Amino acid sequence: MNPSFHFDCVFYYVSDLDRAIEFYTETLNLPLKSCDVVARFDIDGVLFELVPTNDSSRFSGEGNARLTLRVDDLNQSVASLTSKGVVCSAMHKVQNGILASFTDLDGNEIILWQYT
Fold it and tell me: Residue 25 belongs to what domain range?
């Protein structure tokens, strides 16, 4: 019999859970769903978690997985983040959209995506 797999969550490691919660709730306006050992956010039905760790090697952001947030107006979103002290990359036009990136306080990359 084959095992049954079900999606659980996407998560990033963080060094300071309280500081990370503040960044994700106040800077990105993501609603905090719950918090115990980890912090949980519901982003359009997808569970996103912040998991504290003391192992700084886990903050490298290497690999292909990234939190990508769709926005209606990339210029406005970048301007809003910049006004809050977040450093965003230059906007890059690709075949079906425009994107920009920034990192959270632990260096986890977050992508902003606007479809064209």
Answer: 9-55
